[in-house]
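The following block was generated as part of the benchmark described in Methods. Ligand: magnesium ion.
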Amino acid sequence: RTLRIGLIPGDGIGKEVIPAGRRILEALPASLGLKFEFVDLKAGFETFEQTGAALPDETVAILKNECDGALFGAVSSPSTAVKGYSSPIVALRKKLDLYANVRPVKSVLTAANPIDMVIVRENTEDLYVKEEKTYDTPEGKVAEAIKRISQRASSRIATIAGEIALRRQKIREAGSPSIHKGPLVTITHKSNVLSQTDGLFRSTAREALANPRFKSVAVEEQIVDSMVYKLFRQPEAYDVIVAPNLYGDILSDGAAALVGSLGLVPSANVGEGFAIGEPCHGSAPDIMGQGISNPIATLRSAALMLEFLNEEAAAAKIYAAVDANLEEGKLLSPDLGGTTKTEDVVQDILRRL
Ligand code: NAI
Ligand code: MG
């Protein structure tokens, strides 16, 4: 099978880590029967400054018509509004209907309480439909935002969470040392207060997970505020967490803090038959150009993309090579307390692969 992969480095250290993602895919053993073709694509703030579009139409068209998946680095978003600019990854999620944001959070096995969970965030609606307005009243301005929750989106996000739980069950049964829990899906919401919107999310997710094919999957619920508390007190208690957009965004950044560095945490934006792997970190202007960025979040994102393109065996090889580097703990980048350069971390992981 030949997979055609779009490469979108974006800005800052995206340009340092995406080439590493390409190299690890190219280094996969031939025995897997996988070949790759790569297409270099533009997006980001630099692209915006050069062309007036942060996400050129050509990039979207090539991804849609020619690619099986993509790797996206990071973009530098200006902190004050710039006319005409909006985040390309947010636009891509909409244009390609990448409805799930999947974020595995995993600590090194030598940690006292190994963490190995996946946060599955709904990616298309909730407060992020960005339907906001501001109006004047005699007492001053009032601003409002729409929180939209649909049965369709809630059902498909819960379904993919259930599928991920089943896949992890298989990995656990095959002897994974870190997945010691599950299959379990924890539905996160605030339906005690938002009985209609979060209420619909909750009941629809329950219904989707009641499907007989999820018979072996335990389902529990957690109100989002106590979820944050428990996530920090007892992170090892979770397997798969599913949440509406906003809560999922916050929970997944919070969970990333549990494992030491943003440089380790991958994500995938997943739609029907398409996936974009994307490290969770930004463009890190403070370290760019020094050759010290941690490539692991991107390498894991490449593996995660492969998982959702049904190439689980190839993904497992990459995960194992990365884990072996971390477990040995000798060649670590500065964000993990080491002194190793990006290139040498990549070399070590390629050698293990
Ligand atoms: P950041 O994630 O770029 O950096 C936060 C801190 O983590 C920095 O100290 C950085 O050096 C470090 N770090 C991040 N990735 C690392 C890696 N792979 N290896 C070693 N250290 C790493 O977040 P920040 O500084 O808040 O944002 C910088 C820019 O990135 C902004 O323009 C922001 O808008 C953008 N950004 C883009 C995202 C995306 O494209 N999805 C996500 C987050 C931020
Ligand atoms: Mg975020």
